[in-house]
Description:
Elements: H1 6-9, E1 34-46, E2 51-62, E3 67-73, E4 77-85, E5 90-92, E6 94-97, E7 101-110, E8 116-124, E9 143-146, E10 158-161, E11 182-191, E12 195-198, E13 201-208, E14 211-222, E15 229-232, E16 234-241, E17 244-251, H2 258-262, H3 265-276, E18 286-290, E19 297-298, E20 303-307, H4 314-317, H5 323-331, E21 339-341, H6 348-366, H7 368-383, H8 406-422, H9 424-438, E22 441-443, H10 445-456, H11 461-467, E23 475-483, E24 486-493, E25 504-512, E26 515-523, E27 527-533, E28 540-543, E29 552-554, H12 559-568, H13 572-581, H14 588-597, H15 603-612, H16 622-634, H17 638-651, H18 659-665, H19 671-684, H20 686-695, H21 702-712, H22 720-730, H23 733-747, H24 752-768, H25 772-806, H26 811-841, H27 845-854
Parallel strand pairs: 1-11, 17-18, 18-20, 21-22, 23-29
Antiparallel strand pairs: 1-2, 2-8, 3-7, 4-5, 4-8, 6-7, 9-10, 10-15, 11-14, 12-15, 13-14, 16-17, 19-20, 23-24, 24-27, 25-26, 25-28
Helix pairs in contact: 3-5, 5-6, 6-7, 6-8, 7-8, 8-9, 9-10, 12-13, 12-14, 14-15, 15-17, 16-17, 17-19, 18-19, 19-20, 21-22, 21-23, 22-23, 23-25, 24-25, 24-26, 25-26, 25-27
The structure holds zinc ion (ZN).
The site of zinc ion has 6 residues, from helix 6.
Amino acid sequence: MQRESKEISKATINTSGKPKKGEYPYRPSETRIFDLIHTDLAVTPNWENQTLEGVAKLTLKPYFYSSDKLVLDAKGMVFSEVSLKTKNSLTPLKYEYDSLKLHIQLNKEYTKQDTILIQVGYTAFPNKLSGNGSKAINDDKGLYFINPHCRDEVKPRQLWTQGETEASSCWFPTIDAPNEKCTQKISIAVDTSLITLSNGILTSSITKGTYRIDTWEQKKPHAPYLFMMTVGDFAVIKDSWNGMPVHYYVPKKDSANARGVFGNTPEMLSFYSHKLGYPYPWDKYHQVVVSDYVSGAMENTGAVIHGKWVFTSAQERIDYNNEDVVAHELFHHWFGDLVTCESWSNLALNESFATYGEYLWLEYKYGRYRADKQLRGDYNAYLSDTPRVNLIRYHYDHREDMFDRHSYQKGGRILHMLRNLVGDDAFFASLKLYLHNRAFKTAEVHDLRMAFEEVSGQDLNWFFNQWFLDKGHPILEVNWSHLGDSLILNVAQIQPLNHPTFKLPVDVDIHFGGKVKRKKIWITKRKENFVFKGLGGADAVNFDADKVLLMELNQILTPEEALVLFKESDNYRTKLEAMLQVRTDTSLTTWELFQLASKDNFDSFRKLSVYFSTNLNYAKTDENKAHLLEKYNTDPSSSVRVAIVSTLYNIWREDSSLLSFYKKALADSSVNVKLTALDIIDILAREDALLRAYEFEKETDPRIIRYLSRMYSAVKDESKSKWFNWAIKQVEYRDKSYVISKYSKYLSEKDNEIVWKACKKLKEEAIYENNKDVRYTSAVAIHKLRERNLKRIEGIRKDIVDKKEASRGKPYDLKLLEEKHQELLSHDKIMEELIKTIYNLEINKNIREKYERRGLLNTEVPSFKSVVEPY
Ligand SMILES: [Zn+2]
């Protein structure tokens, strides 16, 4: 699974107040009582009621011990039949149901030599499951109907599922645990205007009047959380790999983007198959883009679901793309789908690998610098994830808590270290062995260690113990000095004492006179020093020269050392650290370093050289201004052009001659450049900026919509209400919540009539929007407008009292005020009703509780005695 937009997804998570390790219960893997061998489903979605009618035929056998009781996971269902099916008969079975588990009493005790077939007729009510969700997914009702009644003219009508972690049992009865695996067949009855997607191969498609039954068969076993079903109206763009179908199910109106987003999938299939020594193990590889998805993307076997955010336009791809997500989900098809974590405690065996799969693809396709940049992003993401916990955790609060930046980013970094420790050949040979050993089965971390030990011949307990089974990372203080002709390197591990003292192999590059000598050292103690004879005249020391270790390194570089390292190292992170270390320095050496960086092939360095020069006097010259303007015209990287536009403003704020340049930048191919320029024009010439903004009003790019909503939230122009109502429909999830909150701000200063119309639109979102956070934001927006109304009521009452007391008010004035008062009161009444309706129709328990806490339901108008005399 991939969270949406890695940078923001976890920024809001509150981890404070988490109990310490050991206070949470031990989370064992699920006990195997019955083994599910095959699942055969026949389902019919009911769009009207948002329910699913199904018949499940489950083939099972006792796992080892004999048993006469079968327990199935089945959440929020109603059953019409629970029977034992034999060749000639159907025997009804007794069962008990507690809304989560179906306890079936079998007609006798069965042994592991027996195979039984249980038939369950059921209706699933996903909307009755008020979900919790997690950091990775924001809901957990398993089955989602999008725009089921076609109320929304922009949003397509769709149905999709999200199984991980244990929500597949919201739409079919199963044994919902990652250590269960079975084959699968699913027949879906749909309107002929819609198409379907599920795991495996489409084996039949039979039309009967206005509906059609599609049957998909997955003949290799996989875990229930990987089952999927999608129904909708998609364009299907067809690729293939080695004769195997590779299809992209995408929104019809934007189908031209499909190859731009997914086009490298066949090459990824070749690359991973070759690198892992294990050809892609499934029958097909399809990817579908859905609306209002609750997660970022999900690795359902052979049928990956992507949230709409992954499906970038050509315009977006000028500035960024989400190919790492495409790689992540595909890599899961070996790590996760083929070999599955035995329990959620071992989730790192899925997610750390998928995260590292991103690195491998980027390294192969775009080079080491691009991949190392990704790895540094992972490092920063992990550092922000506190408290530090073990990567493999047998004690946790909720299984969804496992989907954090430890399981993903820290784990990916650890695999990178492991690769560097054993070497490329041993690393990939070990992965190959692990995959072959555990294919179509599950694994825990020791399976991985033993594969590495078997291949490399090394005992690796120390590595796995300190990185997988313990917490934290080394924080090193490093400095060096000369002593005669020797170089003395001092290293101290200063991480908390309750974190391990790490054993670390370190490559140290010693730079002298344009040459580099590499020394390998092992760090094993809290404090150590190393003496290198004959290297006393070194210019710089590059500790962990390939920047492979997961650590915080405190080593201060002088500008001279930084310059040497930037010049002589061919490592992204080394060069980056050199730039970061001197970013506040103002010496000529630093300017020289930035000049060098400005010509680098890697655009990040060119970009930073522009930003970091801002404080240097050497940069504040006409010559440099001319140079930047010239560079703007020639640099192919939009991130560099953004840096140039904003730096020109930051250095030459008073220079009005640059206004024409900023206006020219509005025509840049990159939206990031356009918006940076617009932001500056907004400061320098507000009216002009508003006119320019108007020209962007038809753009559906989420960045432009966000920008305009922020800009418009403070304008008086009443006609922007129309744009807001349009914009809300063009975006989803976080972008949509953002636009709604800005709209609410915009409305706070507008007339009642506009506010009233807006409330009707917001009510639609608060009730019918699929995403619970958007529903919440919309309801809160209405509540805020109601509070504004109440303030106005208060104000008008004060006026009435004042006028009455001063006896200055003519009866006529008072009557007008009283009429206004009544009008506002009746508005309040309607808004109160609106909020009550929203509350009563909210299906998610947590959101209802949030409304209560927010006081949406107990806001009341204080009583007030009218003072207007009848006349
Ligand atoms: Zn994942």
